[in-house]
Amino acid sequence: MESRAADPLPGPVPRQPPEPAVEVAGLVKRYGATTAVDGLTFRAERGEVTAVLGPNGAGKTSTVEICEGFRRADGGTVKVLGLAPTRPELRARVGIMPQAGGVPPATRCAEWLRLVARFYARPLDSGALLARLGLTEHARTPFRRLSGGQQQRLSLAAAVIGRPELVFLDEPTAGLDPQARHACWDLVAELRGSGVSVVLTTHHMDEAERLADHVVIIDRGRVVAEGSPASLTGAERQLRFRARPGLALEELLNALPTGSAAKESPAGHYIIEGLVGPELLATVTAWCAAEGVTADDLRIERRTLEDVFLELTGKELR
């Protein structure tokens, strides 16, 4: 993907007030008889990347759209940069990347960025931003003729061109190829480094683990866990391997050190938890050899954010 040095993204204000970038307290949103958001409370601190995670239908989009001022809450309070989300003075201070794009279909890339830039006092250079996100050769292409990934990148460019204090990014890397995805990650990291606050929703757990300072996991409209990626995943290590499905895990547990746990999830994929060290590793490999089992892809790793997410929200499709 084409790259070129873009304007730096300096922090928007030299001194920041003590209020968080976003403060949500007891938020409720209903659609008829359905309660989509049910007493949600969390904070997104200034100068940090806050990732809001949850299964489909968990209330993420409703929550973010209320914070952006696009929807009204049915209960609770929301403050954005210390103000109500609908206050007009926030428009010049907040960048928004909606999930649906929000760009008129016939508008060309460069035209759209130049138009958006006119609403800000000190916008970034639109040409350099197009180059940064690999869109220079599509500068004259109408939005409707861009690929899904190119549309995502243009929406991201429009969200940051005004040098905002706070950016809402709703699924920013959906449909992006690996190169574009990493370019997006670099841009988010640069935003944070320059003091910009970022609220990010994503279904990519590795993305949240890599970018976020703070993670909020919501399910059925409520917070089920929050903290830094490190605090949520913990320091525990796991031993993982693949083998034929249906191994006798109770027999394996009898041979393992006290306090160990073993599970098969999904079929043929085994996870051993506990004090993962030379003794446990030797026990597992010896047991597999005695059972005539080949332990493929044997590895030791730390618990991931995806492991935590599935434990908290379940694995069933909704």
From TrEMBL:
GO MF entries: ATP binding
Localization of this protein: Cell membrane
Leader sequence segment: none
UniProt topology in membrane: Peripheral membrane protein
Highest taxon in the source lineage: Bacteria
PANTHER family: ABC TRANSPORTER ATP-BINDING PROTEIN
Name of this chain's protein: ABC transporter ATP-binding protein
Organism: Nonomuraea salmonea
